[in-house]
Amino acid sequence: MQEKRWCRKHLLEVTGANSGMIPEPQNARISSVNLHSTLQWDAPRFPRGNLTYTVQSKSTYYPGDAFGTLRTGLRLPCCDLSSLSPYGSYVLQLRAEAGQLRSPWVTLTFKPMDDSEPVPFLPKNTACSAREARGCSVLHFMMLCWFLASFPRLSRGRD
């Protein structure tokens, strides 16, 4: 009888039934503009109770480091990552929780300096038209707008 209990307990531990079966968060993604970074995800379908989320991080520059909790008890499916050093390289973990139940971890990598998009700078009172921007990359368009705003005499003759 003790052997049956041990086998059942071992089976529960192996299948994860002891910790509960919450599906993991889906579609985890990071949006980062000018180093203002946010981890977002879609909540898993879970009919029982309110879900909260935990996000952990660790630097890839120090392989021996353990994960540290970045945020816990999150009720919305997003987490501000702007407190991480912009020069770092990170592994992030995300999981859903409901009481004692836990989902598996979702893992992402993140390098703020590489993964962040710049905000295009357009000076005020710039008269750039769609005709002028046709065929331009964003950088070229920004340079054209800056040039036209900085040297109004040269741009006066345009139609």
UniProtKB/TrEMBL annotation:
Transmembrane segments: none annotated. GO terms for cellular component: plasma membrane. It comes from Chloebia gouldiae. Gene3D superfamilies: Immunoglobulins (2.60.40.10). Pfam families: Tissue_fac. Residues 24-119 form the Fibronectin type-III domain. This is Fibronectin type-III domain-containing protein. GO terms for molecular function: interleukin-10 receptor activity.
